[in-house]
What we know:
The longest helix is centred in the N-terminal third of the chain and has 20 residues, at 60-79. This protein starts with a helix and ends in a 23-residue tail after the last helix. Helix 2 crosses helix 4 (60-79) and helix 3 (42-54) crosses helix 4. With 296 residues, the chain is an alpha/beta fold. It is globular and about 50 Å long. The protein has a 7-stranded mixed sheet with strand order 1-9-8-2-5-3-4, sandwiched between helices. Strands 6-7 form a two-stranded antiparallel ribbon. The protein is 49% helix and 17% strand. The protein has helices at 2-17, 21-35, 42-54, 60-79, 81-86, 89-93, 103-110, 125-135, 148-158, 170-181, 214-222, 256-273; strands at residues 96-100, 115-118, 138-142, 164-167, 185-188, 199-204, 207-212, 225-233, 240-246.
Amino acid sequence: MxxxxxxxxxxxxxxxxxxxxxWAQSLGAWFGRRQLNKPxxxxxxxxxxxxxxxxxxxxxxxxxxxxxxxxAETGRSLAEMGMSWLWSPQRSLKNIRSxxxxxxxxxxxxxxxxxxxxxxxxxxxxVLNLYLSKRYPFTAMYKPPRLKLMDDLVKRMRARLxxxxxxxxxxGVRMVMKALKRTEMVGILPDQEPDDQSGVFAPFFGVDAxxxxxxxxxARQTKARVICGYAExxxxxxxxxxxxxxxxAGLDNPDLVQAAAAMNRSVEACVRALPSQYQWExxxxxxxxxxxxxxx
Length: 296
């Protein structure tokens, strides 16, 4: 059954890839908005819970407005996968309208120093991958899908311009370490829950979140510069704007809780700049410290 679902997903991607970007985004937004009034929608339920936890300063109408906008953006993000994976890289990259902060990357690599790129699930991270892999030696860490069919597709599509794909395991960590020793750039998605042994609890929007230790450990061991990057989805199908920002100080702190908190603050700063385009449907706070109640 899982293989059938994977084949169907690939077929849907193929159909979406036939559409102009604006049409695909409109279709995705329609799908996202439909989730708002579905009583059993996990997308809507998780989004509503996360926004209530992370934006307690907003009143109920403001939270509902953000929830509705977020679900529409989630739908757009899903619908863009056809473009991101099945269009030619050159065609996809034409949709990048501007880039801000790239001098951080240029000056760091010119100085012979490696870069760890914090790439939150914000905007379109597939477009960001294409942009970086076209311009720089780039290694991206990822969590392999369960099905080999989907894993093969993910690796092939993300590696079209030379990205080295490092699985989130011991062999992938070795790949990342070697890339940083070569003073190259590596990209890590920082905002998914690791297993218990690989994480520590640190605040994210004021809520304890199980947070990966790997990125702070790499920052401390390699002395690489840590930069945040994301690709904002522009309105009305106009394309994307890429941003690079300096990460918070303290990511190389030997105290892993303090270092993880600095990493979460770095992600939070990016998200607050573009809150509706963050992956709020993900259960970021599933794991809880001992004695704390469940959040979902």
